[in-house]
Write a structure and sequence with these properties.
Layout: H1 5-16, E1 21-26, E2 29-32, H2 36-42, E3 48-54, H3 58-71, E4 75-79
Parallel strand pairs: 3-4
Antiparallel strand pairs: 1-2, 1-3
Protein name: HPr domain-containing protein
Organism: Paenibacillus physcomitrellae
Pfam families: PTS-HPr
């Protein structure tokens, strides 16, 4: 069961505010979080995800993305590289 549309739209909109690359890893798939279509086909409640953030505003992006995922009850782990 996919998560609600509101979560997908908010996640993509939030990600789009940052110039950093924000990639969601779900099992062996990597999805650009700025892609609404990619999120629709990937985000499923109850799964855990890894978030890879790289770029000039990565710290702000990590904080904002963590907050939005938690708001929608999605479990995400930030990967530091």
């Amino acid at each position: 069961m996919a998560t609600n549309n509101q979560a997908v739209v908010e996640i993509a909109q939030t990600a789009s505010k940052f110039s950093s690359s924000i990639v969601l890893q779900a099992e062996n798939k990597y999805i650009d979080v700025k892609s609404i279509l990619g999120l629709f086909t990937t985000l499923v409640s109850g799964h855990s995800y890894e978030l890879h953030v790289h770029g000039p505003d990565a710290e702000e992006a990590k904080a904002a993305m963590t907050e939005i995922f938690e708001k929608h009850g999605l479990h995400v782990t930030l990967v530091s590289e």
